Amino acid sequence: MAKQGDRSEIGQRIKRGAEGVPWALLLRGGVIVGKRWNALSAKERARLARLVRESRGRLSNLSTRQRLELRKLARKLDLKGMSRELMPLVRGGGKRLRRRR
Prior knowledge:
By secondary structure, this protein is mainly alpha-helical. It is built from 5 helices and no strands.
């Protein structure tokens, strides 16, 4: 069992770690992903989740028909467009970098 002093030390570490998290960027990223996710109907979202769960991260675990269906749903999510929107958040927090001359 942890002593009282240990608990307060752990709490302080968590607090310091949370201060360093860029909450605004995480929120912005969540909004971008949520917008794409909500572009799918509830039925499509459920089917996509089921396919990903069944595949366990490997396309070879799916039948050819299931793979085609997964690709169709992924295209509808527009993953390329989502990545274009998310990249500025990864590269410098949405700020444009200026070149030094």
